[in-house]
Design goal:
CATH superfamily of the domain at 504-685: Glycogen Phosphorylase B
Radius of gyration: 31 Å
Number of strands: 13
Distance between the termini: 74 Å
Shape: elongated
CATH topology of the domain at 504-685: Rossmann fold
CATH class of the domain at 504-685: Alpha Beta
Strand order of the largest sheet: 3-2-1-4-5-6-7
Strand content: 5-15%
Number of helices: 29
Length: 712
């Protein structure tokens, strides 16, 4: 008997030596010879199973490791190894059971608990994954990978501050981890701290300088801050090293659209550069390269194109065709079936939005839909692709039949939406949210429509209708849209006042001299196009005692660029900008309402009007001067004022605009009469249900025309 065991051990040692040396065929033969003499030999079963996994034969590996666990059910390592193989075989339930058994045998088993956490996270059970990783943190707090993995799970849940704390703990233990610096950079971006995100990206690149993903991310963040040339340098560096890296080429094209303009720059050059680059990008994505395209769509969007006073239909249609063509690669690979509405009962309406929280797209557009669409006629399914959860999110959940939130991957969102058998799918905005634009490139419902959360045609051939408003669209506006334009009555939405108590502290800024005529310029700085700078110079000339109040952008450099440009414009007229204007800090809502309480006039942004801003100004009783633009995006203020019967506050050219501001600034009695009329007429803007009633009729009409399962 001892001789037999000695021979078995010799054969096992021989097999292990071959295995370690990478001589897999010889190792396989030796393990099998051993099992021929002893079929239940634990070590041979286990090691041959691991060898099979290494060679990609996972079915055989699972069978062998299952026999090994039966032979020795007290060995936690084998259950962990079996779990790894089962996960590789796409059997997550079996893998979970194996990892859990390994942990039951040894609660402090690092690899098994870590594997289970990763598996749970991949299945979307992030809270359970978090619990296991927190347990590992208490046991292995000196391991940076524990803190990194916990940070990733917290990050996926939108718990950005906690995630950043974990990443920083990992880096404190081991500073030279480029992937953790990059994770931290992405969390900082989500937290709104773009400057720190740039610093962490550069730290990652100092360790791993050739990483194209980090370099491209850095370029995107630099563009957000207005550093267009530096951003382009990042993208071109990537392209020089990896000419076929599609995402860098995509971002390079989108970055041709400047965020803001400094002295001597103009928006026309940016528009023309983008148009040329887009055509080149379309040509570059030939059939051979389209497979890399789905990962590009949405990473950067031509958001700033809407701030150019041009008809962008043709340009955005070319962009939209490219997006849909690239996403079709994913559709083909996923074998996505065409949508079929159920065709019975209530009209099933889906709403896809990344802004279901206290944010303007929700408060101005989607909230009214969810509150007032007739529940006896419509069943609402809300797909929230964002991560911020607040009281408005909870309200949204209470208003609809279903709120889907927290999915991680694009394919999960697409399947969830398609499985609902929707009649109509609505997008309150397309052009800002990464996931929304990707989903909008697919046909997930028989009828699909967008609205004006981003006030520009989507350019997508997959979007059938554009929901706008009678008050905002001029005659002939259909020419601006690829979609069929639907003009809902009035303002096109149901809007309620905020009733925000203003923050008196916000108005204590030393520069707000109450003896001056305070002209609030409430737009974010990048809304101010250089072609309109002379208007502010002329107003200051006509009203020397005026003081423009601009608000800083969250990205400091954007404000600096615009402020330098305005300084130059005033200087060219022999005037000092600082004598007539001030930039105040970016304000939360209460502080912004505080500014409106002390201002004398609100000068709506020329070219890209502010719907929510003007509605808030009316709520505060603040007179607004509007310059009516050519396109819907430049007509929010004028539409609101005309709706109130205050067309006299609407200018249609630069001279009238300056004259109107001067008149209101110098004629105190007239200004007071206007204030009184705003107070009297303001309520007409709020709580108007006629747009929703018209939307109901539209939804029922298009749902009846769409093909359904009954038609088949």
């Amino acid at each position: 008997m001892s001789e037999n065991r000695s021979a078995q051990q010799t054969l096992l040692d021989e097999a292990v030596a071959h295995h370690r040396a990478g001589r897999f065929a010889e190792a396989d033969s030796a393990y099998r010879r051993l099992l021929a003499t002893e079929p239940q030999q634990f070590d041979a079963l286990r090691l041959l199973g691991l060898l099979a996994h290494q060679r990609g034969a996972d079915d055989e590996a699972a069978s062998l490791l299952e026999k090994a666990t039966a032979a020795r059910p007290d060995v936690p390592e084998t259950f962990n190894e079996l779990g790894v193989v089962q996960r590789s075989r796409n059997n997550p339930q079996a893998a979970r059971a194996s990892f859990e058994q390994a942990i039951a045998l040894r609660p402090d088993f690092f690899e098994a608990r870590s594997n289970l956490a990763v598996l749970l996270g991949s299945q979307g059970d992030l809270e359970a994954a978090q619990a296991h990783l927190e347990m590992l943190g208490s046991l292995y707090g000196d391991r940076p990978d524990v803190h990194t993995n916990l940070g990733v799970v917290l990050h996926e849940q939108g718990k950005l501050q906690a995630a950043m704390n974990c990443y920083r703990k990992a880096l404190a233990l081991k500073p030279d981890l480029p992937e953790v610096h990059f994770n931290l950079a992405q969390a900082l971006e989500g937290h709104g701290d773009v400057a720190s995100a740039i610093d962490e990206s550069r730290a990652a690149l100092a360790i791993d300088p050739g990483n194209p993903l980090v370099q491209t991310f850095l370029g995107r963040q630099l563009h957000v801050q207005g550093h267009r040339n530096e951003a382009q340098e990042c993208f071109q560096n990537v392209i020089a090293l990896k000419p076929d890296y599609a995402q860098a080429r995509w971002c390079s094209t989108m970055t041709e659209l400047a965020v803001a303009y400094g002295p001597g720059e103009n928006s026309d050059d940016s528009w023309e550069a983008f148009a040329r680059s887009l055509d080149a990008l379309i040509d570059w994505f030939d059939e051979k390269r389209r497979g890399d395209g789905p990962g590009c769509v949405g990473t950067m969007q031509p958001y700033y194109l809407a701030y150019h006073q041009r008809n962008n239909r043709s340009l955005l249609s070319r962009y939209g065709d490219l997006c849909v063509k690239l996403m079709q690669q994913w559709v083909n690979a996923a074998k996505l079936p065409p949508p079929i509405a159920r065709g019975t009962g209530k009209v099933r309406v889906g709403i896809v939005c990344g802004k279901i929280y206290d944010q303007s797209v929700w408060t101005a557009i989607a909230k009214g839909w969810c509150q007032h669409l007739d529940r006896d006629r419509f069943e609402l399914h809300l797909f929230y692709t964002g991560k911020i959860i607040d009281r408005e999110t909870e309200l949204a959940k209470s208003l609809v039949a279903e709120l889907v939130v927290g999915l991680r991957h694009f394919d999960q969102w697409a399947k969830q939406i398609l499985d609902r058998g929707l009649d109509v799918l609505l997008y309150p905005e397309i052009g800002m949210d990464y996931m929304a634009v990707r989903l909008a490139c697919l046909r997930l419902a028989p009828v699909q429509a967008a609205s004006w959360g981003h006030p520009e045609t989507t350019g997508l051939p997959t979007i059938d209708y554009y929901l706008s408003a009678e008050d905002f669209e001029p005659a002939g506006a259909q020419a601006w849209y690829r979609e069929r334009l639907i003009r809902l009555p009035g303002l096109g939405c149901v809007y309620e006042p905020h009733n925000v108590p203003f923050d008196a502290g916000a108005v204590d800024h030393a520069a707000l001299d109450r003896s001056r005529v305070l002209l609030l310029c409430p737009g974010t700085p990048y809304k101010y196009d250089p072609q309109h700078d002379a208007i502010y110079v002329e107003i200051a000339r006509r009203v020397p005692e005026c003081r423009f109040i601009f608000c800083h952008d969250i990205q400091a450099n954007v404000s600096v660029m615009v402020e330098r440009r305005l300084h130059a414009a005033f200087a060219s007229a022999g005037m000092r900008f600082d004598d007539h204007a001030v930039f105040v800090p970016h304000q939360p809502r209460a502080g912004f309402f505080g500014l409106m309480q002390v201002a004398d006039l609100c000068l709506d942004t020329i070219g890209f009007s502010g719907f929510n801003t003007v509605m808030q100004a009316v709520e505060c009783g603040l007179p607004v001067v509007a310059y009516e633009g050519r396109f819907m995006r430049g007509r929010f203020a004028s539409g609101i004022l005309r709706h109130m019967g205050l067309a006299e506050l609407v200018a249609t050219n630069e001279e009238d605009y300056v004259n109107l501001v001067a008149k209101l600034s110098t004629e105190v009695a007239y200004l007071q009469r206007v204030r009184n009329r705003i107070a009297a007429a303001g309520p007409v803007l709020f709580g108007d249900l006629s747009p929703v009633r018209a939307l109901e009729d539209f939804l029922e009409s298009v749902a009846r025309e769409a093909p359904s399962a009954d038609d088949g």
